[in-house]
Amino acid sequence: xxxxxxxxxxxxxxxxxxxxxxxxxxxxxxxxxxxxxxxxxxxxxxxxxxxxxxxxxxxxxxxxxxxxxxxxxxxxxxxxxxxxxxxxxxxxxxxxxxxxxxxxxxxxxxxxxxxxxxxxxxxxxxxxxxxxxxxxxxxxxxxxxxxxxxxxxxxxxxxxxxxxxxxxxxxxxxxxxxxxxxxxxxxxxxxxxxxxxxxxxxxxxxxxxxxxxxxxxxxxxxxxxxxxxxxxxxxxxxxxxxxxxxxxxxxxxxxxxxxxxxxxxxxxxxxxxxxxxxxxxxxxxxxxxxxxxxxxxxxxxxxxxxxxxxxxxxxxxxxxxxxxxxxxxxx
Length: 331
Ligand SMILES: [Zn+2]
Prior knowledge:
Blueprint lengths: L10 E4 L2 E7 L7 E8 L4 E4 L6 H15 L5 E5 L5 H4 L2 H8 L2 E5 L2 H9 L1 H14 L4 H8 L16 E3 L4 E5 L2 E7 L8 E5 L5 E4 L19 H14 L5 E3 L8 H25 L4 H8 L6 H20 L3 E6 L2 E6 L2
Parallel strand pairs: 4-5, 5-6, 6-7, 11-12
Antiparallel strand pairs: 1-2, 2-3, 3-4, 8-9, 9-10, 10-11, 13-14
Helix pairs in contact: 5-6, 7-8, 9-10
Bound molecules: zinc ion.
Zinc ion (ZN) binds next to helix 2.
């Protein structure tokens, strides 16, 4: 395994905003962009990276240089419940005794994040139901021991909802946009002074974030596409994403990602018109070959999100055959 690429150095972006790229303990993506906003009371940190020494070193060094050692982090706001964004939260909270802030859906989903064994068992049942053959099941669904970079999480100290504001002082605030899809608890934050959007993984510059089936949220693809529409409707321009470079026109990028999903929905519809399929059949058709087990799981979760979206819209029907879900065209 080659070493992860080296992230760029922390830098000021103007308007009291700084970015600290924190390396991640794997190659894809190689780092997460943490953002720091200066306030009268200290520093607000948006996302913190996975919990490992290289990430902690980058974060601590970056924050010390911004705060010159005497401005503490008062709040850690996490855009969503994935380990490359929230993993380091326990260490950050313990070090600065700051508030841990997330969308209120995280109160429901943190217990599952903390229970790796239950997640793996759920994935095995899901994969079997969606057509993964028995001889591949354990390869596709075994997750191994819980990685050190995702320690168990406590509940947030402060929970946010759509439209809430986080005061920055001097008549400036961050407004919360609840943008479910990539994760049900995903939020973006909009700076009232500059109009800049901190987009987390909702809108990324080069890749389309994975949209994953989730039991309690029946149409996550619809959630995601609506959340993208909001970014275009608001005419969001400058966008600071959690991975990759700054986006000049968040609204146009959101529209591109939306078109990608519409194209994918058409491909899925055409494929199902040819013959009944399981989600696993489609993973082989739609994604590049030789995916890693993790990518196979993500591809399966996203494919079911697309199929279920079409089934809810009445364009496909789902049929149970011996405990396996098959999709048939309704046309
Ligand atoms: Zn991410």
